[in-house]
């Protein structure tokens, strides 16, 4: 077998101490005096400062959304004093917020001093569940305020206490409802990308495990009018799912299965099973057992669709390996896995064919599709 780099040009080598040299303040001053190196250094410096100010930028977005500033500009540009009066803020402080929004390309400052929506700001208003997610970030950011404690300790966090739902098969009904609402409101984009990457053509019945209030199943039903729907989740979650399906006229097509996927086998009768944002909530042992249960429940030719943010593995991915990796760390349960890791779990469980189509929007979701026979 040829070596992995056979036929390729040799990789460039760094001389000893190169990174130490880069880390020297005196060398940075030297670079600023060399035109070619200056451009590279300033580009790297700008990228580094973007990382440093990242939290502040996210909080500016939160303020614009929660104060309704972006929505208020849908009807056209407005000035700082006008918006401040409507919001009950001092005009000078509204001006700070608007100027920051323009710097982040969420707003556009006009020559007359008023502010209007930029393309990115308008698109922000179309993101389902964004306001809920930004409010939820108050918990996550509180945990991220001390990353050393998050990394080195195992003490409960604000996020883990919020999602204690995950550790219990008999959660508090109000807690379960809050979890399901947040998941449902952020599910539209996930469902859209999942169904494009893993179309359900030819599937007669789909079992969604841990499907919450049924947002993903409802999206699948809209695309496939003959599809029978099955949902497995904890009893406190199912009333919201039942209400959704009845409201959409899907009650006759739907079978609800109260219970935990930790207990006993999965319901039989589906030729496809979906795990949407489920595995990364749980440890490896639980994930392996669930995949094995899915394999046992599927008939010949059945398929398993796993959809969630996935690590880039040997090519680290910004969304999963930064945001979602630290979020699951704060949850104190589960972790992000690469598509290769998930594929290995599927093969270990006895799936014959596994593929991972290129994600459309990795910050939304990635997908692994496993089948019980070669296709």
From TrEMBL:
Give the O-methyltransferase dimerisation domain ranges. Answer: 50-121
Pfam families assigned: Dimerisation (PF08100), Methyltransf_2 (PF00891)
Name the Gene Ontology molecular function terms of this record. O-methyltransferase activity; protein dimerization activity
Coiled coil located at which positions?
Answer: none
User: Which keywords annotate this record?
Assistant: Methyltransferase, S-adenosyl-L-methionine, Transferase
GO terms of biological process kind: methylation
Q: Which SUPFAM superfamilies match?
A: S-adenosyl-L-methionine-dependent methyltransferases, Winged helix' DNA-binding domain
* InterPro entries for the chain: COMT-like, COMT_C, COMT_dimerisation, SAM-dependent_MTases_sf, WH-like_DNA-bd_sf, WH_DNA-bd_sf
Domain O-methyltransferase C-terminal: from-to ranges: 170-352
* Protein name (Swiss-Prot/TrEMBL): Demethylspheroidene O-methyltransferase
The upper taxonomy is: Bacteria, Pseudomonadati, Pseudomonadota, Alphaproteobacteria, Rhodobacterales
């Amino acid at each position: 077998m040829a070596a992995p780099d056979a036929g390729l040009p040799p990789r460039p080598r760094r001389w000893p101490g190169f990174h130490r040299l880069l880390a020297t303040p005196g060398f940075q001053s030297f670079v600023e005096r060399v035109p070619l190196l200056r451009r590279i250094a300033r580009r790297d410096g700008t990228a580094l400062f973007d990382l440093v100010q990242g939290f502040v930028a996210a909080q500016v977005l939160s303020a614009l959304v929660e104060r309704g500033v972006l929505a208020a500009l849908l009807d056209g540009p407005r000035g700082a004093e006008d918006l401040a009066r409507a919001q009950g803020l001092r005009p000078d402080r509204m001006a700070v917020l608007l100027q920051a929004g323009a710097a982040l390309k969420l707003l556009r400052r006009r020559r007359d001093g008023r502010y209007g929506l930029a393309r990115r700001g308008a698109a922000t208003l179309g993101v389902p569940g964004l306001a809920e997610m930004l409010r939820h970030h108050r918990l996550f950011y509180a945990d991220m305020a001390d990353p050393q404690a998050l990394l080195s300790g195992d003490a409960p966090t604000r996020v883990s206490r919020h999602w204690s739902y995950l550790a219990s098969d008999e959660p508090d009904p109000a807690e379960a409802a809050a979890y399901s609402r947040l998941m449902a409101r952020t599910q539209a984009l996930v469902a859209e990308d999942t169904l494009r990457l893993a179309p359900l053509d030819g599937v007669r019945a789909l079992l969604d495990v841990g499907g919450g209030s049924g947002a993903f199943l409802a999206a699948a039903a809209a695309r496939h009018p003959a599809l029978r729907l099955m949902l497995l989740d904890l009893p406190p979650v199912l009333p919201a799912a039942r209400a959704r399906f009845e409201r959409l006229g899907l009650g006759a097509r739907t079978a609800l299965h109260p219970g935990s996927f930790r207990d006993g086998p999965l319901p039989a009768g589906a030729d496809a099973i979906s795990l949407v944002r489920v595995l990364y909530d749980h440890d490896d042992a639980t994930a392996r057992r669930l995949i094995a249960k899915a394999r046992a429940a599927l008939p010949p030719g059945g398929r398993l669709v796993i959809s969630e943010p996935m690590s880039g593995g040997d090519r680290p991915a910004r969304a999963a390996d930064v945001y979602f990796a630290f979020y699951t760390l704060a949850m104190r349960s589960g972790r992000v896995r690469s598509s290769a890791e998930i594929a290995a779990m599927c093969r270990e469980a006895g799936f014959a064919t596994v593929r991972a189509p290129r994600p459309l929007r990795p910050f939304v979701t990635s997908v692994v599709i496993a089948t019980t026979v070669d296709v």
